[in-house]
């Protein structure tokens, strides 16, 4: 694993921009006049290519310069280490220590909570613990698990898996903290819908500790980034990656990809009109079924290749800490693993707090404890299983997959692993999983973005956001994967700056709430309903 491959993901932004300015990705200019060549390419470009070029040039490149700023680490260490990666990793470590490893000691209690053992019908909120968890999971269990893990292994090698798992474990505490805050500072809007999440606790939580000015600024920044993330990573990225998987088998989509985007937009639109109750009801059905089907298929492949599993695990662990290719390569694997893990489980991003704030409970800490299961299910379980399938089958190193890896087509790499390791018809299992995971992620992220939009512009403008969201659903089938992936990273990772800063400052509030709750729990003060 050389330095170039370890930094490939970090260079996606710059590569994308270079491709955009060339008119056709990968095309080598032969004209001696580059201006004339660029003009010619622009004239010959389709309307879809023009949209993609403008998107990459005016949105992706400028935002990347800010969010992925690396303080010159590439010159010093041989690999670019964006500050956002250090920020998220350090945040997970700090919160895990601050909350005294609540991610481990509350695990069993979290399972009891989602089983409804402590539920009472008259508690305030809109959805049950399980429905809130399903809605949040539907936003995280998706293309990040199928495509993101494969991208991480393809660009950084099998060792990236270890860092994905570690960040998943640390992310359990980050999810606990932000979702507890989401419950603490939630309100009900004029239509009777719960409004909660970072845009609430950043503004009013920081006001309570004497930082009202900072709270207002962070809340607005978060809301803007969340809206952008809902259009990108929570919508366009999902549509684009799922389209790539099924496109070869559905010929009409090869020439008319916008048809898929239009179908997805209609399907998403039907659900998001009903708000969180409708979203949670649909997510509560889709997520368990598709997670089960996907995991069973993956475990079947691992069973067929059982003799190769120990070697795969050994490769994953040894390459995670290997310095054979240099210190820069080691850091590159770590960075790629952290980025992909965060993109998958969204711990520290603050998005899940929006869904969990709607849960029915009068004990905010209990919902935070439910939320800590998300990174475990999403990252520690599903991502690890995907990684093992990709490594056991060896597709990440297959010569015919190198172009797929270079262009960040992670879902296609996982598809190849399912076919090689299992049966030809396994492709249809993955087709269904990819499409439904993409769909469930879109409907959940529409809620996140809509709640942020309402916080900024008022509940009466909600319909404007929903129409914009559906427009981006269609655009997801048009804008190329390079720009989609870059934009997704930018917006979703960018949300961590205002969110984690507020969470750090409010961690004392959460710690006091946790200590009080845990004492009651240990004393048996919470009545069991089942």
UniProtKB/TrEMBL annotation:
GO cellular component, one term: plasma membrane
Region annotation (Disordered) ranges: 1-43
Key word Cell membrane present: yes
Pfam families, per the entry: Na_Ala_symp (PF01235)
InterPro entries for the chain: Na/Ala_symport (IPR001463)
Membrane topology term: Multi-pass membrane protein
Subcellular location: Cell membrane
Any one Gene Ontology molecular-function term assigned to this protein's record: amino acid:sodium symporter activity
Record flagged with keyword Protein transport: no
Taxonomic lineage from the root: Bacteria, Pseudomonadati, Planctomycetota, Planctomycetia, Pirellulales
Name of the protein this chain belongs to: Sodium:alanine symporter family protein
Stretches with biased composition (Polar residues): 1-10
Source superkingdom: Bacteria
Native source organism of the sequence: Rhodopirellula maiorica SM1
Family note: Belongs to the alanine or glycine:cation symporter (AGCS) (TC 2.A.25) family.
């Amino acid at each position: 694993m050389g330095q170039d491959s370890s930094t490939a993901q970090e260079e996606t932004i710059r590569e994308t921009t270079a491709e955009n300015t060339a008119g056709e990705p990968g095309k080598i200019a032969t004209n001696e006049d580059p201006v004339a060549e660029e003009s010619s390419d622009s004239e010959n470009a389709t309307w879809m290519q023009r949209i993609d070029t403008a998107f990459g040039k005016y949105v992706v490149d400028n935002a990347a310069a800010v969010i992925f700023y690396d303080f010159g680490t590439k010159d010093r260490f041989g690999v670019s280490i964006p500050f956002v990666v250090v920020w998220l990793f350090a945040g997970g470590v700090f919160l895990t220590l601050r909350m005294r490893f609540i991610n481990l000691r509350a695990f069993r209690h979290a399972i009891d909570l989602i089983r409804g053992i402590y539920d009472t019908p008259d508690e305030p909120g809109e959805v049950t613990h399980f429905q809130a968890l399903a809605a949040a999971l539907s936003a995280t269990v998706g293309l990040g698990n199928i495509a993101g893990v494969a991208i991480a292994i393809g660009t950084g090698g099998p060792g990236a898996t270890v860092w994905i798992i570690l960040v998943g474990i640390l992310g359990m505490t980050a999810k606990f903290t932000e979702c507890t805050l989401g419950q603490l500072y939630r309100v009900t809007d004029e239509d009777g819908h719960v409004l909660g999440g970072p845009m609430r606790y950043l503004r009013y939580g920081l006001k309570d500790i004497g930082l009202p000015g900072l709270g207002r600024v962070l809340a607005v920044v978060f809301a803007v980034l969340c809206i952008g993330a809902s259009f990108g990573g929570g919508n366009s990225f999902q549509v684009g990656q799922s389209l790539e998987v099924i496109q070869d088998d559905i010929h009409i989509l090869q020439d008319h990809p916008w048809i898929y985007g239009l179908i997805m937009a209609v399907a998403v639109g039907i659900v998001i009109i009903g708000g969180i109750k409708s979203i949670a009801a649909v997510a509560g059905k889709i997520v368990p079924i598709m997670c089960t089907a996907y995991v069973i298929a993956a475990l079947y492949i691992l069973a067929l290749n059982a003799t190769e599993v120990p070697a795969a695990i050994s490769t994953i662990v040894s390459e995670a800490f290997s310095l054979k290719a240099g210190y820069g390569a080691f850091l590159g694997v770590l960075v790629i693993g952290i980025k992909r893990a965060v993109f998958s489980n969204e711990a520290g991003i603050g998005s899940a707090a929006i869904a969990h704030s709607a849960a029915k409970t009068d004990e905010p800490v209990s919902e935070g404890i439910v939320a800590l299961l998300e990174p475990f299910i999403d990252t520690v379980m599903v991502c690890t299983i995907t990684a093992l399938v990709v490594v056991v089958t060896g597709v990440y190193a297959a010569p015919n997959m190198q172009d797929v890896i270079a262009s960040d087509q992670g879902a296609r790499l996982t598809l190849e692993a399912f076919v090689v390791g299992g049966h030809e018809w396994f492709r249809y299992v993955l087709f269904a999983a990819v499409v439904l995971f993409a769909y469930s992620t879109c409907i959940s992220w529409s809620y996140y973005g809509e709640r942020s939009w309402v916080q900024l512009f008022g509940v009466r403008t909600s319909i404007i956001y929903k129409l914009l969201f559906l427009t981006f659903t269609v655009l997801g089938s048009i804008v190329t994967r390079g720009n989609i992936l870059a934009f997704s990273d930018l917006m979703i990772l960018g949300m961590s700056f205002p969110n984690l800063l507020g969470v750090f400052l409010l961690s004392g509030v959460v710690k006091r709430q946790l200590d009080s709750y845990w004492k009651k729990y240990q004393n048996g003060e919470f009545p069991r309903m089942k």
